[in-house]
Write a structure and sequence with these properties.
It contains eight helices and four strands. Helices cover about 40% and strands about 15% of the residues. With about 150 residues, the protein is of the alpha/beta class.
């Protein structure tokens, strides 16, 4: 819907569309790039893949509650979310450039490397000292890298 709205604007170059997503938005951005041909390049901050590992290891309160409610038997959740896991649709992003920015101490979404492995080239990944939240303290480095990536692609 957003892309359709952007297509109506004369100040938007739809041939040069790039996307940025953070946290869950990074996962949604990856999924969008896998099904929509318009974005040329994507940059994510503290995103990941391997939702099964995410459910097993994340310290996000909602996910911890789901583990408790299911007594650790959250296989049904994993089955339902299979096609929502970026690692399972990453191959559909072929031809799009991905840049990932992740925190070395991120235990909320500890699966940034899994997403990187699943993505086709071109891709690059940067790691920063920081947790899921404190990685954002590196925006002075992250954003210039993103803009350079978008200029390249």
């Amino acid at each position: 819907m957003l892309f359709r709205s952007l297509e109506t604007r004369s100040d938007v170059d739809m041939d040069n569309l790039h996307m940025i997503g953070t946290s869950m938005g990074a996962i949604i951005t990856c999924l969008t790039a896998s099904v929509d041909p318009r974005p040329k390049a994507v940059a994510t901050i503290v995103g990941g893949a391997d939702l099964e590992k995410l459910f097993a290891e994340s310290n996000i309160g909602v996910i911890q509650a789901l583990r408790t409610l299911t007594n650790g038997h959250y296989e049904l959740i994993n089955m339902l979310m299979y096609m929502m896991d970026p690692q399972h649709v990453a191959f559909l992003t072929k031809g799009k450039a991905f840049q990932l920015h992740n925190g070395l101490q991120d235990i909320s979404v500890p699966t940034g490397y899994e997403l990187f492995l699943a993505l086709p080239e071109p891709k690059e990944q940067y790691w920063y000292e920081g947790t899921h939240l404190t990685t954002f303290l590196h925006v002075g480095t992250i954003f210039p890298r993103m803009f350079e990536w978008f200029e390249k692609y």
